[in-house]
Write a sequence for this structure.
């Protein structure tokens, strides 16, 4: 299976790329700076140099040849303010959706965010803008005829993964390791029966493979 990861150099995307490569999948993705590509190569991951904010849909589609699944894990992560969030999390998602259509790719997995993330905190206008853009991106993808899945992880941490999660259409916002998000995505990539679903993800008691398999029965 060939998987193209938009966001392959990020905290979740790079972990996902390593997991998929280890299981024999072919991985590609976008990186902006040469050192990022070199870092991926050290893990045996081939990627393509390109800037999501500078590519139009036709140009991105031209890079997606033979792709089976497109995974969008890219995000501004607060850097660059509202402009970067709009360009990457918003317009970037639109570009990727149209590119998938042009390239004939059916399966599209999007990493999003809990809409109520940190509602109990006094958050900045930048964060509110981020939540708004992510919600609109979810709605845009859900309105397409692609075989989409939207994964909404809770607050991300860099602690070692536990291999155990809670995965459900609705959960209480807590936290989740990037390792476990990537492992859950890898399972979803290999579970094509799950589509047209919005799933929330937190730390939890269930082995990841079991949690994903349970969603095939819902």
């Amino acid at each position: 299976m060939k998987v193209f990861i938009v966001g392959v150099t990020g905290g979740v995307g790079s972990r996902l790329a390593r997991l998929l490569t280890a299981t024999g999948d072919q991985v590609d993705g976008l990186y902006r700076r040469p050192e990022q590509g070199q870092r991926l190569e050290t893990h045996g991951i081939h990627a393509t140099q390109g800037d999501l904010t500078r590519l139009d849909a036709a140009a991105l589609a031209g890079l997606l040849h033979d792709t089976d699944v497109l995974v969008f894990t890219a995000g501004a992560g607060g850097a660059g303010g509202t402009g970067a969030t709009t360009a990457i999390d918003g317009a970037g998602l639109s570009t990727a959706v149209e590119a998938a259509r042009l390239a004939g790719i059916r399966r599209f997995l999007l990493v999003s965010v809990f809409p109520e993330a940190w509602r109990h905190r006094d958050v900045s206008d930048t964060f509110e803008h981020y939540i708004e853009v992510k919600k609109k991106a979810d709605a845009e993808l859900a309105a397409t005829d692609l075989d989409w899945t939207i994964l909404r992880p809770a607050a991300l941490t860099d602690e070692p993964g536990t291999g155990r999660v809670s995965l459900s259409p609705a959960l209480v916002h807590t936290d989740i390791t990037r390792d476990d998000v990537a492992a859950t995505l890898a399972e979803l990539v290999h579970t094509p029966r799950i589509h047209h679903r919005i799933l929330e993800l937190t730390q939890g008691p269930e082995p990841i493979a079991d949690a994903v398999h349970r969603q095939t029965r819902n």
The chain has one domain: 2-215. The CA atoms of residues 101 and 121 lie 39 Å apart. DSSP finds seven helices and eleven strands in the chain.
